[in-house]
């Protein structure tokens, strides 16, 4: 791919903010306008210093903050490059993660870590609206996009709704796709919070233990019965969750 070059214009730097912030915003504007596209090389510290007349410390901080915000990727000894847009998923619409990945032109794979029957804890009984003890089907799996882990899915399923859940081959279809065939979603509730992963979660997602993550909690119904409760953990640096409106899928 032919690399495009940023237009570094000293007159574009705002005098009303710190220089590093002005440099950062100048480069962000180049990305927003499409002057620099995904995977294009970003000017180096030396180029920023020479063309904008700022200090090396200023150039370094601007690039560091762009990298921290996910706008660029810095490769040691090679340079800085515009990051590809983060994969995203909607909050209101319950979609199949494999379909979302395919729509981005990428390849979905999954690693199934656990398929079991378990007893519902008191908190899960509350989630499912049960007053007494009962068994649930439980699965944990890691979803990959082009070989990069983007989600840990921890799912509990009502056995009355999906009696064959534990016998499914989830390398061929996702849990979402299977459940959609046996119990079409009539409503869902969703919550999301920022969390830090456990050591095992960080290892599965190939991130540092202190890296922030987004944890989505979703409960779906088929008419008056809860079908499934899902806890999905996403690396914050690789994923974003968006809001949308419109009819729910069958």
Structural overview:
This protein has seven helices and eleven strands. The longest helix has 14 residues, at 19-32. It has helices at residues 19-32, 45-52, 56-68, 97-103, 122-128, 175-182, 199-205; strands at residues 41-42, 72-75, 79-82, 88-90, 108-119, 135-145, 148-157, 187-195, 213-222, 225-235, 240-242. The protein has two domains: 10-82, Winged helix-like DNA-binding domain superfamily/Winged helix DNA-binding domain (Arc Repressor Mutant, subunit A, Orthogonal Bundle), CATH 1.10.10; 88-242, Chorismate lyase (3-Layer(aba) Sandwich). It starts with 18 loop residues before the first helix and ends in an 8-residue tail after the last strand. The protein is of the alpha+beta class and 250 residues long. α1 crosses α3. The strands form three sheets. It has a six-stranded antiparallel β-sheet. It has a three-stranded antiparallel β-sheet with strand order 1-3-2, covered by helices on one side. Strands 4-11 form a two-stranded parallel sheet.
